[in-house]
Amino acid sequence: MSAGDVHFEVFVRRYPDSGWALKMATDVRLTALDSANEMIDRGEVAAVRVMRETLDPATGEFHSLTILNRGVPEKPRKVKAPEPTEPLCVSPQDLYTCHARERIGRLFETWLERHEATPFELLHRPDLVEQLEASGVEIAHAVQKIAVPEAHSRGASVAEMTKSFKSLGDRAIERLMRDARRGLPHVSPDTFAKVAGQLAKDPEGAYRLGCAVAASLAPAQSWSEKVGLLLDLADKAPAEGAGRKLALSVIAQPLEEIVGCQKGLDNVVGGGLDLGARLAAMSRLAAADVVDALVKAEPSVAKMMPELSDRAKRLAHWLHDEDFTGVRAAIGQRILRDLSGQRRLRPSDPVSEIDVIRGLAMSLTAASGKLLPLDQVQAAFSARSRMLVTRDFVETYLGEDNTVQEEAEALIWLIENVIGGGAKREAGRWLTSLIFSLRFETESRETHHAAARLMELAKLQRAVARCGLIEEAYKPIQVKLGEIGGLIEADARLIATTLRATVPALSRLTALLKLACGEAGPLGPVADKARAEAMKLARADDTRAELSGAPDRVDAIRDLLKHASLAA
């Protein structure tokens, strides 16, 4: 049997309840065993397993043999109970749960958008139900769309599921129409508290108050007007007790659906905004107290954060209430969905797009916990960061007329504002490609102001170390910048010129020490040469004489000497 017929696979369980996942495969037994033992010893995983896989040439199948099994024992898995064959919703009242309303919103999405209505309104307004029935095919299409996947997942026939859902829809419509004929309550801001208090004792109080609230939204001409009407009712809700709890829970349902739909939330925060501005407005809407405090403390956030309309400010105030937690969560999920999507935040201005992303990251991180879990925020920004390092974005971001210094500074700013190891590495590769290009060296050496150019390179060299790249990535860049600085100094003979300058020795020594410590030039050949000349000059008699006559400059010279020695 050849060596190619046998290989070894390492499987891991990261947590005690996790399933097995393939970590690596190798032809070397010792490599597999050492890797498995190392992972379990360091505590990286809960359990490891090494399998010896042998190929049977006759059948082409692999035969497995466990040769190592370490870690937390695997818990026996419970046998999953068979799925019930009957639909999740069996009575008309089941259609009023949040999950059912979400499904109804997806099934009738086009129709609801056309009529600017929410699933809550459709379930509580007889006039909307009549319009839906008059359309002829909308209900049949919705029943078919839900019956097919339900039948497949439950092992039932499509005909059975279709019949079941059609019967459920007919009973729900009949119930609403019957109640409308008997008479449903009506509310206005003046009567809302009284009606809510009375219905709090009714077993069907939520349904009947929902019908009244939905009817009060009928005159509204836009999503924003509906929000205003709902907030008018919320302002007049009972002050306490079961009546207040019922009132606010009913109002929260249509509010959650309005902010969860794209056109609804866009209408509330204001039209004419690009995606970046809309996301910023949504963040401010859902976590107004946190974001407003950040706007006062951080100018960069204040610059990109739009002002909310008066109606949006009213809604933001109400979102602090615990009864509107679902509304706040719906806005948060919308933010995550848009942030993780493929659309540009500022299609015509990539520089401003990075500023928006930075401001959003600060706002959402500050509001994490209250608005969204921190890990979800980080995952969304990681996905967005991957878009910022693609060729299309980077080439547009750098433009065509910038100098190499401006491009390098722009790339460093990009690296600082992306998160995730992959995005950081890709952005670092863009910077490395620029710094090591012939264009960068040529343009840097063509300068007529060698001292200014060396100072710019020193600035880049320091910034590269602070932008978030790992040492293996930024060290070669720093070395290259130092080499280019050495070429510029050699072309301009800057150090020799400094030594011959007709200025006091202390001034020449100060200039050389600033080069030596990486302040006036990049560390590398320039700093090494300047340090050697500075040490010679510091020992000269005229320098010592000047230093003894200027005690006020002793501390400054001593600090520069210390920094120059540390930079060596």
What is the CA-CA span between the terminal residues?
A: 60 Å
- Oligomeric description of these chains: single chain
Shape: extended
Helices, by number, come to 30
Uncertain spans: none
How many E strands? 4
Account of the 3D structure:
The chain has a 4-stranded antiparallel β-sheet with strand order 2-1-3-4, covered by helices on one side. It is built from 30 helices and 4 strands. Helices cover 65% and strands 6% of the residues. It has helices spanning 29-41, 98-107, 109-114, 119-124, 126-134, 138-154, 158-182, 192-199, 205-216, 223-235, 241-260, 262-269, 275-286, 288-297, 299-304, 310-318, 325-339, 350-366, 374-388, 391-398, 404-417, 421-435, 438-445, 450-466, 471-492, 494-500, 505-516, 525-539, 541-548, 554-567; strands at 6-13, 21-26, 47-56, 61-71. A hairpin with a 4-residue loop joins strand 3 and strand 4. By secondary structure, the chain is of the alpha+beta class. The longest helix has 25 residues, at 158-182. It has 4 domains: 3-71, no CATH class; 92-255, no CATH class; 271-388, no CATH class; 505-518 and 529-568, no CATH class. The mean pLDDT is 86.
